[in-house]
Amino acid sequence: MKRPLALALAFLGLATSAGADEPRDPASPPWLDADDLPVPEWVRSVAPRRGDLVIFESPTRHAQRRGVSLAGARLGFYGTTRAWGCVGRWLLVGPLAWVCGDSADLSSDEPYAPVPTVLADSLPFSYFFVGRDGASAYRSPGDEAPERDLEAGWAISVVEQRSVQGERWGKTSHGQWVPMHDLFPARPSTFHGERVDSALDFAWVVSERANVFAAAGLGRSAGSKVKVRFERVGWHAEKTVAGAGLMVRTSAEKDSPEWMLARDLLHPTLAARPAEVVGDNERWIDVDRGSQTLVAYEGSKPVYATLVSTGRGTGESMTPAGVSRIWVKLFTSTMDNVERDLDKHYSMEDVPYVQFFNKAVAIHGAFWHREFGRVKSHGCVNLAPQDAKVLFDFTSPHLPEGWAAVFPTRLEPGTVIRVR
What we know:
2% of the residues lie in helices and 38% in strands. The chain is mainly beta. The protein folds into four domains: 10-107, no CATH class; 126-185, SH3 type barrels (Roll), CATH 2.30.30; 201-266, SH3 type barrels; 283-419, Beta Barrel (L,D-transpeptidase catalytic domain-like), CATH 2.40.440.10.
């Protein structure tokens, strides 16, 4: 079996052995213990026997967790070894990525990931909210007894719809069926940030409607010009005006200037990189709670900027300031408070592109509101869906194909996140 492997696996130092009839190229996977039984030539991937697979950094259960596979995925197969904690063989499925063969089978299938096609709005699923009368989830459409009751306002992801005896049903990503007449669709924000070169000479309108002036003062309007929420404008000069406060020249042309009130705008600003960022081109993210903006950097160079919604209030609901590194990334995660003894519960299934960096505080996509640029969350940093996908791909560790979660390693530490 010869397949290209665009992964730096040489550091693993595994011995190689030949098949029964044909010598194996030692530069090609799978790498095997020299005295072990050969692996059949038809093996192409590793398949979980049920559910998902826990992936370890090295072939022992004492090792750090490396990640978790997606249920139903077929992971690439690159080698085996015998070691403690696994009755069968440990199976190599990527760099610093081992699974125990006791929970998986060798497969002739090509590796693949059962990941839904990312939709036009960058979301992996179609999302729906439960209506005000609540809803019930069933094992199969038309069952008499529900498996679960859903409260009004909860969000679920729907992966399939079908009609049964004239009624439309939706299948959730968790395999339950809900009557579609009890649901209404989410309308995620189409806002997204900006890729930048070096200058942050722009802002976004955050008022619903904002006046444009022909001079730095409130007396001269620029005709009937107005800007609306989320429009991008320039930020080229500032001037404090009596009775108006800070005003900003939003046009690049000095001969035909346009000025706006700074209070109608949010402006991302440059920030010095923290001491924790050591490489000249190391990627990191700066979150400014004051301006509700986020800037992604490579070293000292900004490369992306957008609006966020950080935590409202104080205590647990406030996004904490500080410098941390991403400690786990998840393709999706359910966020709720249903286990807490509260009068009102919330539940958001399959929140996309989740990056935990400070204990239970994460950067993630939000499909349930459009309030970016304003405090809104329960403590996390909310992003519009398109921004969440961009930043999930930008940060490390990168999520390999077929994985649901990934932890950092010594070769790929988590990206630095600073909140100020």
